[in-house]
Write a structure and sequence with these properties.
The structure is a homodimer of 313-residue chains.
Chain A lengths: L3 E6 L2 H13 L5 E5 L5 E3 L2 E3 L1 H10 L17 H8 L10 H15 L4 H11 L5 E4 L6 E6 L2 E4 H7 L8 E5 L8 H8 L1 E6 L8 H6 L3 H7 L3 E5 L2 E2 L2 E2 L4 H7 L6 H7 L6 E5 L6 H5 L4 E5 L6 H16 L3
Parallel strand pairs in A: 1-2, 1-9, 2-5, 9-10, 10-13, 13-14
Antiparallel strand pairs in A: 3-4, 6-7, 6-8, 11-12
Helix pairs in contact in A: 1-2, 1-13, 4-5
């Protein structure tokens, strides 16, 4: 069966699923579209946390315990900045910093983010394409009762403790889908919305003008994997965010957000009782373990996802 | 006795003398004018090797064995760049990189190099002013039989093995002296040409339009400390450079270059037999140990230099 499998992904769960898919697919049959709404300028460096988490995960170098950064990385640059009296709540390891240093250098030389990402992948031996959702800058902004925060301030500095009353994507109106993203969707035999936060990971990707439209218009099978299990995101603030944004804080809430956009919803077996409600939204429901603790878990979930792409509705 | 002591310095010997002077003078009475001809753009970062050697030396953090960088620094960023397939002949440590990252960030925010250097000094607890020779970019270029090389390629990458047939300072015509440099010279009671290479360390500073003129016009006592002992620079290629550029490869060769510019020449005791020849150039000669291996050496030399500034000719 020809065609690409296209995965939309933020950092955490989506990246793990990407690794699982890569274990089952030839690398050139998988394209991962990464969220860049979390990107930041850090001391003049362009840092792309989600793209880099994808890169490190696919290269087998991710720090699994932390869920970000490179295993065994050190923080000497950060320590030195702290000694100079700088704030260092954004934790960028030394080797992780090298990635951003190279990327920024290449961007200044005129490469697009797509090209710079492709080159980083090639240099790291990752043969699967990781493409940014857009080459244009988009910045996720979080509205809280205390005011609007940039994403990393909300997420890292304030440890996602603020109630989220709104999310917007600065620059989204002028952002064009990266050429790789749109091409991949056109050539997809299957499109997977990874188990990432629908508001701040999948949301920015879908909000790039043209991407959601292309997915809706696609004849590929479209599958979403639940990012929430038993009413809680495995990591991060999704449960609370669903609530404060006025949605049901469970898989039904997420499935409702994806209504009309996906054909199949992969639900965790801990939430099996929600199956009828999600089915009523017009989706086929696959119930399985979606919690990826081991490489076996990742591969098992990826296998279920690939099967869902291939089965008739 | 009022007024400033102004030291013109490259990285190595000049920085050690600065440390010696600082042990004897109140910090606000010493101003060090640093060479920026060695500066480079490295992955988009503005690296100032001589200013940073001065900073680290005065902060007591220099790696003495290497003569550059921060004691105990690591090279994780560099290792990561090498893993990405980059050339890493220019060795920038992680903590050293943090200095350049901050400087570059501040320069992009609109600070001048003078202001950024001042801020780094303040953050590092260095109360003596280190001022760049100029806020404008100047780049030392080395002419060799193989063609022209930028300074770091000549010095680091090719380990200063090429015969030097010419030196020029790219951008020097348009470079203005930094305000701090010219002010300090005007307020000097003494001006010291440190024991640094006259062609590539002191030379660029003097070549900034206005600086040599201001020193010549100054009524302050002017002292040069020999950068060459027994026909050899303690570090670096000065001996060979004097020869290939058509000068005597000894202290007389250096003194000849400074003829008319300095009143006193500090000669190493190993070269005492050269005293009459240097005296004939119209300089008073002080003979003493100029080799700085210990803090006692540094202080003893600094004491001789300060005494030379105060004695009548």
């Amino acid at each position: 069966m020809g065609g690409l499998v296209v995965l939309l992904s933020g950092g955490g769960g989506g990246a793990k699923l990407a690794r699982g898919l890569l274990a089952l697919l030839p690398p050139e049959e998988l394209v991962v579209i990464g969220n860049t709404g979390d990107d930041l300028e850090w001391y003049g460096l362009r840092v792309c946390p989600d793209l880099d988490t994808l890169l490190y995960t696919l290269a087998g170098r991710i720090d699994r315990r932390r869920g970000w950064g490179i295993r065994g990385d050190t923080f000497a640059v950060l320590d030195a900045l702290a000694q100079y009296g700088e704030e260092t709540w954004f934790r960028l390891g030394d080797r992780d910093l090298a990635t951003s240093l190279l990327r920024t250098h290449w961007l200044r030389e005129g490469l697009s983010l797509t090209e710079a990402t492709h080159r980083l992948c090639a240099r790291a031996g990752v043969r699967t394409r990781i493409v940014p959702m857009s080459d244009d800058p988009v910045r996720t902004r979080i509205r809280t009762p205390q005011g609007e925060l940039d994403f990393q301030t909300y997420f890292v500095r304030r440890r996602h403790q603020d109630p989220v009353v709104g999310v917007r994507f600065d620059g989204i109106e002028g952002a064009r889908p990266s050429p790789g993203a749109l091409d991949a969707i056109y050539q997809a035999r299957g499109i997977v919305l990874g188990p990432s936060n629908p508001f701040v990971s999948i949301g920015p990707i879908l909000a790039v003008p043209g991407i959601e439209e292309a997915i809706r218009a696609s004849r590929a099978r479209r599958v979403a994997v639940t990012p929430i299990v038993a009413g809680r995101a495995l990591k991060g603030p999704l449960g609370a965010m669903l609530r404060t944004l006025g949605h049901r804080p469970d898989a039904v809430g997420v499935a409702t957000l994806y209504r009309g956009l996906v054909d199949v919803f992969v639900l965790d077996r801990q939430d099996a009782e929600l199956e009828p409600e999600i089915a009523r939204l017009g989706m086929r429901v696959v119930v399985c373990n979606t919690v990826m603790r081991t490489s076996q878990d990742r591969r098992a979930l990826a296998r279920r996802v690939l099967r869902a792409l291939e089965e008739d509705a």
